[in-house]
Amino acid sequence: MHKLKYIGAFVVKAVSFSLIFWGLWLFILKPITSPAQNTNTSSQDAQSKALMETYEEQAMRTDELLNSSDAQQKRMELLLTIQEEQARRYNLILDKWEKQAGIKK
Fold first, then answer.
1. What is the number of alpha carbons within 13 Å of residue 14 lying toward its C-beta?
2. Could you tell me where the DSSP H helices lie in 1-105?
3. Which pLDDT belongs to residue 33?
4. Sign of dihedral through CA atoms 81, 83, 88, 93?
5. What pLDDT shows up at residue 27?
6. Whole-angstrom Cα distance, residue 93 to residue 87?
7. Which of 74, 75, 96, 94 is nearest to 86 (CA)?
8. What is residue 71's predicted lDDT score, i.e. its pLDDT?
């Protein structure tokens, strides 16, 4: 019976120590360290904002390049059409000259 009393007292002391320790940790020590976490959070927010600005700049540059590429592709299509027409006309002229010269293909 005497040992049971010591075991019970030990358990009560352990539980009370744990409650006091975690109570101090959560209500006193945790709020003291939170401003450091707030500065860490604000630096993370600044990094996140900087990354977002970089992303937006990259997106704008990509849009500009796509627009430029589309314009260049339209110019190339126009040039290709003109070259095809010139090649057709050149072939017609060559055919007339060959007929005049009497050259057979």
1. 6
2. 2-24, 30-101
3. 62
4. positive
5. 81
6. 10
7. 94
8. 94
Report mean pLDDT in 10-residue bins for the chain, 105 residues. Answer: 83 92 80 60 85 94 94 96 96 91 74
Residue with tokens 């589309």: 70
Length reported for the chain: 105
Q: pTM to 2 decimals?
A: 0.44
Q: Is residue 77 helix, strand or coil?
A: helix
* CA dist list (Å): 66 to 26, 34, 58: 55, 47, 12
Amino acid in position 39: T
Amino acid code (one letter) for 74: K
For residue 84 the two structure tokens come to 């095809």
Cα distance between residue 15 and residue 24, in whole Å: 14
Which tokens go with 35?
């401003």
- 98 within 8 A of 105, measured Cβ to Cβ: yes
CA distances in angstroms from 61 to 2, 58, 72, listed in the order given: 82, 5, 16
